[in-house]
Structures are given as structure tokens and as C-alpha cells.
Amino acid sequence: MLSRVAENLYWLGRYLERADNVARLADVNVQATTEMTPAGGGHAWEAVIATLGATEAYEAALGERPNLNPVDFVIYSTAYSQSLRSTVAAARGIAREVREHISREVFEEINRLYLGTNRGGTDEASLRTFYSTVKRAVAAILGLFDNTVLMTEGREWFHCGLFLERAEMTSRIMDAKYFIILPVPEDVGGPRDRYQWMAVLRSASALEAYRKQDYGPVTGPRVADLLMFDADFPRSLVYCVGELHRHYDRATEHTPPVRSVYAAREITLLELDLRAADARNVIRSGLHQFFDEFQGRLGAIDNALRTHIFQALPEEPTR
Amino acid sequence: MDLFSGYRIRSGRDEMFTPDLTVRPPYRDFLERVQDWDAATFIQRQETADLDTLNSGITFTVYSDDAGTERIFPFSLIPRIIAPDEWNRIERGLVQRVTALNRFLVDIYGAQDCVSDGVIPPELVFDHPAYRLKMAGFCPPLGVYAHIAGIDLIRDSEGIFRVLEDNLRTPSGVSYVLENRRTMLNTVPDLFPEGRVEPVDGYPERLLEMMVSVRPADVTPEETRAVILTPGAANSAYFEHSFLARQMGVELVEGRDLVVHDEHVYLRATTGLEPVHVIYRRVDDDYLDPLVFLPDSMLGVAGLVNAYRAGNVTIVNAVGTGVADDKTTYRYVPDLIRYYLGEEAIIPNVETYIGWREDDLAFMLENLGDLVLKPAEGSGGYGIVVGPQASADTLATARERLRREPRKWIAQPLQEFSTIPTFDGERFEPRRADLRPFVITGESSWVLPGGLTRVAANAESYIVNSSQGGGSKDTWVLREQPEP
Questions:
Q1: Where in chain B is the domain with CATH 3.40.50.11290?
Q2: Could you confirm whether domain B217-312 is CATH 3.40.50.300?
Q3: CB contact set of A311 (below 8 Å; sequence gap of 6+)
């Protein structure tokens, strides 16, 4: 498969997954914080922006437009490249470019999502409609992708992007707890703490899974257990990195080791480290630090894919 | 006929109705099916069709358009319908013309007999900016230069089809032919006379067969790797490039995806380099190879032309076809047909004056107000001055330009051409339409039944290019009706 196309499919998977997660994150956090602190709408958006790692970009944008509404920034901005709308536009741009590698159904669904993401209202009701449109559309796209796209290399690259992005977003959503409010020691285990962990579970669509897996009353270590280490839960870090590993191996089945070995090493080590970790220890030594390192390692995988596979310099042909 | 009551033919011939508003035979069946519809039904179907077009991303990019660079190509539900005998003649005429043009191209890069025999002035060929000296002495596989030709036709007031323009470089539009048919079958299946409309979806297979047939000599058909070379997603015809790649199941590549080693072309895959044998390029000659043509081109592949000359890769259409589809050369095509084939042109030209000839130039300067002035180079309907509709200022400017650079211009009488009813949102009005059939040439020539019917943006306009707001229609070639 063409290297450029492989890279595009990988990014298509990433952008679609990111769009879904941004919608999910914005939806739940704003609801949760509004409920707990009636005057705290703005604060909730700050937390969302921090979770997405966009604080600096937001402050820069505020410098230019002091009245900039955080909703406009995170959701509708066309100037900010990571906004929900920009993410959908990027996914659609790629889908158009690699259209011959996805099915007509998948392209049309992505195109429809893109055509529907014009700027809407910033009130709660319009936003919720908007989020649910995005979430449903992405779900439909992923379903169509699974059922209509050929079982070839490109499909594996798409999934590599998707699971890498999902791992990153799950870690960011958990990290959001850190941004919502720095835990004061007396508060841990209290009603406020518990409520916030439930919001984290809902952001990751994990509340029902939490109940079904019988984790008991909601506490930080248990939520971390599910979202990080439960291999049965399809958004957990362990699951996502495992899937990334599996799809990467399939994608590079015929790739010479001189190209494939770098990302393979990063992915394997990350998976082993995750399997060897323990939720309680991680929390004791600091969740935020853990996620920082985790996201750094995902960045290293991304970098290895780009340098050694997608944009590798051509070697002599074998004839 | 409720739907068409109030329809008025303005000038020229109408494809659907005679001047006394009797329906013409090819449209009879269609009109019977559509005439019970009221305007609301029609509007609703049109909306469904537009939504279908938008959702499937059938868009093109308009350069120099600030807001939103993608537009849908306006599509009209009333088809152009061509009778079997009419089509038969067009088909023969197109094959004749493309055969002569290919012979001409082989000749001017080879023996140059047409020049020694005085059929065409040498300056017109060898001074032409699209004449590629680099290709002199090279004959591509099967002697085919113009593998894919799009010949623009119009029908004049007498009902005679004429060639308006030859397109032999990278003619586009065929994806719209296939997509228009799909949209019609999706939205108005009840308007089709069952089993009587020639299908169009054979095109991609024919195209692929042709590409395999012109492969380099030492490659077997099974191992032949064909690709489409696109300038990239920002190109106005990107939809078509991607569409054809999908329909043929071949890779769509950009210049940066290809590399040349030892005069062989490879594509850069995740697994390493893979050989490429036939390239259907949708990149102009000038951008094809920075070592030979424009050195700062980012769209091409360094070393491609040498690999081509070495016979290790075939480029479709060949390098250097631009001499033959030029508007100046056009004037000589009937002579070329006579010279190479010993036949008269089946489809006549439109009367044409070229600034290059002194007698023509004098006539052009004198009669500019009655003529349509066109740049000899270029496409897309840019720079055209329609004399009878132009202001005095525009005419003065045009005359000045013509005097300064006479060789850059050609002129034709304002050609009245046929109209087809088109819905303008409220009622039907006649819109001028041309027809671009597509001819594929490998071992022999094949004509896609029908072609792209393009319609002008409003009732007054004579320009049908999509870049100027024109739209398109499905084109139906009817089959012979079986004996009852």
C-alpha cells in the first residue's frame, strides 16, 4: 500500500475517534459541573480545554479576541485546528483524499457529518443535539467501516490510528479529574470526589460497564482499575494498546523489519508496562504523572510510525 | 403537458420540441412518462437528486473563489436524448477524427510527412509551445498518443452536429457521466424507457483494458501495474481522479509517491518500492518531470520522461498531444482527415478564423462584433469574448489584444447551438447545451455511448463550462427498438 495512503488512513482513524471523544468530554463535563456548582459553567469549559491540552492555544486566542466564548473555541472554531468542527473537517478532507480506499458508504457518512457541522447555537440544548449528532455519526461510520471496507492493510492502519487516539483520549479523560479540582486530602472518598469520578466514567461511556463488572461503590482506584487495566472494557488503556499492537502486527505483516521494528518496540514495551502496572500504586505515585508519561509514549509511537514507515526514505528496489 | 406549458423556444434548435412545440421522436416516450408530474413532484425529485449529489461529494473546486472552494456541479433531470441513427453517425465521426489525430501526432514526432506535403504550415507545428522536441523520434506503444479524447460537439440550427473543440491532453468530465446516470437511476427510475437506454458503466473497464494494452513490451498483462497520477486533492478535477481509481481498482498516486531508479518507475509503499508500468496522468506535460519541463514543479516525478523514452513505462495520454488539440490546428483537422484517411470528415468543424493567417486576421479585426474571440491556448471558458454580447469597451480591448498577439487568438461566428429544457426553480426554460463524448483508443477506438452534456448557467449564455457556473445532464443514447 502507498505510504501516503497508509498515513492518511491512520489519521482518518485518529480524527474520527478524536471527534467522538471531544463531543463526549464536552457533553459530560459541562453537565456534571453545572450540576455541582450552579455558577460554574465557565469553569467546566476551562477543565475541558485543559483536558484537551489546549490551554495555551486558548489563551493565545483570548489575547486576540477577549470576548471569545470557550464553546466557540472548543466546538465551533475554524481557526483552532483541534476544535470539534476542525477535527471533523480534517477527517473529511482525508476521506476525500483516500476515497478509493474506503467504501462509498463510509465516505458518504463522513461527508454528511461534515456537511452537518456548521456553527450552531451555544446554549445547552443546541450543544447537546450537536454532540449527539457527532457521536451517532462516528458510531455509524465505524460500523460501516467494519462492515464494508476490505480486510486489507489500509483497514489495519485505520484501526491503529483509532486505538492510539482512543488510548490517548481515555487517559486525558481520566486526567480531567485532576483539572476539575485538585483533590484536597479530606475530600478523597467524599461525595464530591465520588460525583466527579462518576462524571469521568460517563465521559468514557464507562458507567454501565463499571456496574456490570461489579466494581462496587465508585472510588478513584476502582475507576482507574476499569479505565486503565480492565482488558474486557473496549476503551481501557490496556485494551486499546493491545488492539493497537494487534492491528500494527497485521498492518506490517509484509513490511521489512528495518522499517517496522521501531514502532513495534515502542508498542510492545508500552503494552508490557501496562500489564505489569497496578492501579493503587499508580494512584499513590500520582495519576497525572502517569498520564503525562503515557501520552509521551504514545507520541513516541506516532513518531516511529511517521519516521520509519509513512515517510521513510525510499531504499533501492528489490528486483 | 402541464409541466411544459409556457415553454418557449428562444433561438436555435431545441432538442426536445420542434418550433411548433411538437415533441421530437427521441423524447416521445420520456415526455409521456414525465407529463403527468406537477411542478411540486418535479421539484421534490430535483431536491432528492441534489442531495444525492452533495452527499456523495460530487464537487469541483473553483479557483479564485474565496468562500468555500467546493461546489456541486448543478444537475438537471431532463436528459439529452439521442436517437440511434444520430448516434451511429456521431460514433463513426469520432472514431474517424481521433484516428486521424493520432496519425497526425505519430507523423509530426516521426516522419513529418504532413509538413513536407504542405498539409499544415511547419510553424504551426514546430513553433507550438506544446510541441515537445524531447519526444521527436519516439513512437509510443501501438502508435497511440491520444488514448483518451474528449471531443466537444454542438448541434447547429440546421440540426447538424459539429465539432467545437478537440481535447486530447487530460480531458475531464467522464466521472460526471457515470455519476449523473447513477443519480438518475436513484431518483427518477420511472422516467427510463425500460431496456432502451445504452448503459455507460462500461467505461472504467474499457479504460483499464486500454491501459494494459499499451503496457511496455517486456511486461505481461498479468503483472502490469497501472496507476492514476493526480496533482492532488486541491485540483479541481480531484473527484474524477479518485472516482476513476476506485472504479478501476488502481492506485491513485501523487508525484511524491513515485520514484525513478535506473529508468524504471516505482511507487513508495509501506513495504518498499513496487514497480509501475502504465501511468494515466492527470498532470499537464509542463509539470510531469522537473528534469525535463518546469524545473520547479512539485507535482511531477524526476526522471519520468527518460523512463518513458526508454520504454519502461507508458504515459497516457502521451507527452506532446497538445499540438493536436490546439484551436489553431483545429482549423486543419478536416484536411488531416482527408490526408491520412482519404475520407471527408463525417462530423464537420465550425467555421474558424485564426489570427495566425493574415487574411483571417484582417477579417477578424473587421468583424469582431459578430464573432466569438477565443484564446488559442487554454481551456475552461476563460478569456472568451462573445462579440454580439460585448460592450464597446470590451471589444476595443479585445481588438487591441488581437492586434498585439494575433497568434494567440482564434475567432468563430457566434454559433447558435441547440437548447434543452432545464428547470430554473420555477419553470422550464431553454438552455444551450454541448456534448462531450469520450473516445478510448488502444488497439482500436471505443466511444462511450453518450457523453457529458453540459448546459449553460442561464438562458442567455453561450458558455457551458462548469467554471463559469454551467451544469450538466444525463445523456441517453437510445437503442434500436426491437421489431414488434
A1: 217-312
A2: no
A3: A3, A7
